[in-house]
Amino acid sequence: MGGIILRCGRLLCAFSSSSTTKVFGSTRASVASTILFMLLTCFSALFPAHAKTIVFDAVGSGTFTVPVDWNNAGNSIEVIGGGGGSAAGADWKGYAVPSSGGGGGAYAKVNNLVLQPGSTAYFNIGGGGSAGPSHGDAGSGGDTWFNGSANAVPATLTSGVLARGGGGGHGHRSINYLGGSGGLGASSIGHVVFSGGNGGGAYYNGKKQSGGGGGGGGAAGPNGNGLNGQNGNGHVGGAGGAGDNGLGGAGGGEGQNGSAGVELSGIGSGGGGGGSNRWSPSVTGRPGNYGAGAGGPSYLAPGVAGVQGVIVITYTPLSSLPSYIAQGGAAA
What we know:
The protein has helices at 17-24, 31-46, 323-326; strands at 3-8, 11-16, 52-56, 60-65, 75-80, 90-92, 95-97, 107-111, 120-125, 144-147, 160-163, 192-194, 310-315. By secondary structure, the protein is mainly beta. The relative contact order is 0.20. Helices cover 8% and strands 19% of the residues. Strand 6 and strand 7 form a beta hairpin.
């Protein structure tokens, strides 16, 4: 049986009459229609659709209207939980009492989530944990999730993705008390899950040789767990942990801010803030975007809030053909 061959650059497109029947649903399809279809096919192959990226980072709940060109076979949704905060430093009988660092948020990713174009999906972005009082605990970071079928935390991979928030740091409790726990990948939901870094512990021994706050934990990312914040040591504050297994934002040094990540389409997993030292108690590192834990302050300095989570949606749009081709009809 006859056919048509068309060369588009280095791409050779060949269609037999049998393939024409399948495309148009009629053996009487015109040659012009066949050539048009071949041109469109070649054009799509030579100039594939570029991926689209949508970012949500406003704390709280929201809705997402699924685009008409949504591709169920070419999408990913990545989420990072909120980072934990740190409690205020304190004074105890004239000695500096520091706070431990907050934990970083977990990371999770789901691939090729099946959604109906035009339908409504639901999401929630976990906030950073609040700063806590002296001798108390800071707030934990909130969970970040996306659900394609219900306004609720997803329970399975077929409905969505979930990343847990990091735990808040602790104020004066005992000698060398620990930092907040990183958000757990094990309790998150995704095809890929990683845990946030733990916050560093604070150093207090009831003597003058104390006062170093713990560093904040780094947020997890697509390359691995967030790194742990370092413990305070004597008067010295601990450095913050880097995000995404060292490939995200850098952790802050003593009293320095953590850096923002850039590995997710220009944004990414943040590095934890550095803990403060005894002699500069209010110079406490703030966490970087997104999902990083706060550094722990020292003597009478206020606590620091963690950083919120984020959602990154990436998909390759479906190519659109003329309606008469898509519907199997012949051209006039």
